[in-house]
Amino acid sequence: MILNRFPVDPDRLKIVILSAPKTGNTWLRWLLHYAYKIQIIELPPEWAQGCADDFPPRFVTHQHLFPSESLVRWLVESRAVVLTTIRHPADTFLSYFHYVKWHDDAGSDSSAAMLKQDGDRPGKNALKYVTYSFPESYAISLAWAKLGSHVVRYEDLLVDPLSQLREVTSKIVPLDEERLKAAVFLCKPEQLTRPGLVDPLHLRTRSARRWIQELPSEIVDAMAGLQPYVSACKTYEYDWSRSALEPSGYDYDKIDPFRGHDRFDNGELIGPSLAKIYLHEVPNASARWPDPWVTEGESFWNWLRAPSALASLNPDLPAGTLTNIMVMLHNLRPDLQLAHKDPAGNDRVGFTTWFLGQAQMEFQIAWGLIEPVLQSFCDYLNSKSGDPVIHQPAGGITQLTVLDTHGA
Asked: What is the pLDDT at residue 29?
């Protein structure tokens, strides 16, 4: 087979996921993004010679492209690792049916518009679609598998994403267990659907065998006798039994770095963004703070509240107006990086004002991480004005009217 024949260079790691829609492409892409700490890039929905010339040396991407001579040549010459996700054909179609219902853009599939005419449940238009249109889309995964792509079953990811990620990475560049656990935990639904990441509609149910409850028997019977669904079921051990139970979901609690705690020991809430910071943004966090919910002493909590080492870059402002959590949040959001290009220096006031007014809502972080910044900022404003700034009671602020978001 032509794909995945060469040794992988970790410094030039290129991972390309090519599969049918709604088979777990996005999930696998984010797992590998976190595991290898590589950039996610967008592959064009239509392949053209030269469209990947400006790609970085290391990346992960996914797209729903059929093999072409030009695309395969690029994959081989780039020594890209090619992966493919596969899913039970009925569940794949059902997920796609709901996706089309909620999105006006069905990509290059012009025939998908007919599915909306069925309303909330698949009907006669769905039957026509699975017979004449969906086979071509579903066959994308089967085609890449024939060329040597590493195949990952969606259902196996559901049952045990850790073992599946371990198996996949063993074929690419093996990783230590803690790195794998961190990637899996950061891809649990509550983490992956944080603001700015994955649209929750892409993770509508994250389940298997929902077709048993939702697809009419005439559609199931038709698919069970049609290619390429028949060959997919034979190759990947899928069946059409309506009596089979839905597989049990993965227990994410056993790899939770906060070990089930939803609050710090001082009662403050642990928001989903803190897991990303702890597992992915701070080097050696688990060694530094093995019990990250503890708040006393040299704790994760106190580190988040402490002034960043970068705060000294603007000596005109108190160090407390740029804390470690502020720097971490800035690193997480490209829009913040664009709006506040120099948060430690010239953009400090604007970034601090954003943090005080928006961060708690947008990142769901505890008030105790906001309060020291407010205190420091108010002290700074008091030093610049004869009129005292009224401190808000601990628990929330309504508005800072001294400066707007542009520092005017």
From this structure: 97
Q: Which pLDDT belongs to residue 311? A: 96
Domain of residue 123 covers: 10-236
- Mean pLDDT, consecutive 10-residue stretches, the chain (408 aa), reads 95 98 95 96 94 96 97 97 98 94 67 87 95 96 98 96 98 96 92 74 75 96 97 96 84 92 96 92 94 97 98 95 97 93 96 96 94 96 69 42 38
**How far, in Å, CA of 320 to CA of 352, rounded?**
10
Residues 201 and 284 in one domain: no
What is the number of structural domains in the chain?
2
22 with 90: CB under 8 angstroms? Answer: no
pLDDT at res. 195: 67
Same domain for 20 and 152, yes or no, is yes
Whether 312 and 170 share a structural domain: no
**What is the 8-class DSSP label of residue 193?**
T
Last residue of a domain, one of 236, 265, 299: 236
How far apart, in whole angstroms, are the C-alpha atoms of residue 123 and residue 128? 9
**Read out DSSP for 318-381?**
-GGGSBHHHHHHHHH-HHHHHH-S-TTTTTHHHHHHHIIIIIHHHHT--HHHHHHHHHHHHHHH
E-state strands within 42-134: 59-63, 81-86
Q: Which of 154, 131, 128, 129 is nearest to 141 (CA)?
A: 154
What the block records as the tokens of 279 is 């597992």
CA dihedral 358→361→364→370, nearest 10 degrees, is 40
Residue bearing tokens 């579903």: 138
Are 137 and 109 within 8 A, CB to CB?
yes
User: Which pTM was predicted?
Assistant: 0.85
Does a structural domain hold residue 205?
yes
Structure token digits, residue 9? 């260079």
Q: Tokens at residue 224, please?
A: 């069970």
How far is the C-alpha of 199 from the C-alpha of 189, rounded, in Å? 10
Task: Tell me phi and psi for residue 61, to 5 degrees.
Answer: -150, 170
Q: Tell me if 401 is assigned to some domain.
A: no
Q: What local confidence, expressed as pLDDT, does residue 397 receive? A: 37
CA 80, 83, 89 angle in degrees (round to 5)? Answer: 155
My answer on whether 26 and 105 are in the same domain is yes
One domain for residues 68 and 209: yes
